[in-house]
Amino acid sequence: QVQLVESGGGLAQAGNSLRLSCAPSGRTSSRYATGWFRQAPGKERDFVATISWSGAATYYADSVKGRFTISRDNAKNTVYLQMNNLKPEDTAVYYCAAHWDMNINYTPRSDYEYSAWGQGTQVTVSS
């Protein structure tokens, strides 16, 4: 089972940017789609973005479309979430997750489709 580790969270002012990274803790040759989710205090975990293993397909939540960009570098086994024009409502713990599928262009959008999760990284946006 792949263990995922997120990094890059922190404190940012509204309008600024952060970039999150997600990588396996050990070496892996597995092919998996990667999703980002977030959970604010007292709220349910929400889908943010997903990218297929091939990188050819991406999908975003409406709340982040046009501000966030998901990308991947398979040579580095790393998936990124570039977050621009941050808003206070983006404050949450951000999690990355992996989904294994024979379809390298599949972009799962529900958390139940993901079988491996990271521990999360805190993003706090001040106004």
Q: What does this entry look like structurally?
A:
This protein has strands at residues 4-7, 10-13, 18-24, 32-39, 45-51, 58-60, 68-73, 78-83, 92-100, 116-117, 121-126. By secondary structure, it is mainly β. Strands 2, 4, 5, 6, 9, 10 and 11 form a 7-stranded mixed β-sheet that branches. A hairpin with a 4-residue loop joins β7 and β8.
Please name the defining characteristics of this protein.
mainly beta; seven-stranded mixed β-sheet; 11 strands; 127 residues
Global outline = globular
The helix/strand series, from N terminus to C terminus, equals EEEEEEEEEEE
Q: What percent of residues adopt helix (DSSP H or I)?
A: under 10%
The largest sheet, given as strand count, sense and whether it forms a barrel, is:
7 strands, mixed
H/I helix tally: 0
Distance between the termini: 39 Å
Estimated radius of gyration: 14 Å
Structural class: mainly beta
Quick synopsis:
The protein is 0% helix and 49% strand. It is mainly β.
Question: How is this fold's topology laid out?
Answer:
Layout: E1 4-7, E2 10-13, E3 18-24, E4 32-39, E5 45-51, E6 58-60, E7 68-73, E8 78-83, E9 92-100, E10 116-117, E11 121-126
Parallel strand pairs: 2-11
Antiparallel strand pairs: 1-3, 3-8, 4-5, 4-9, 5-6, 7-8, 9-10, 9-11
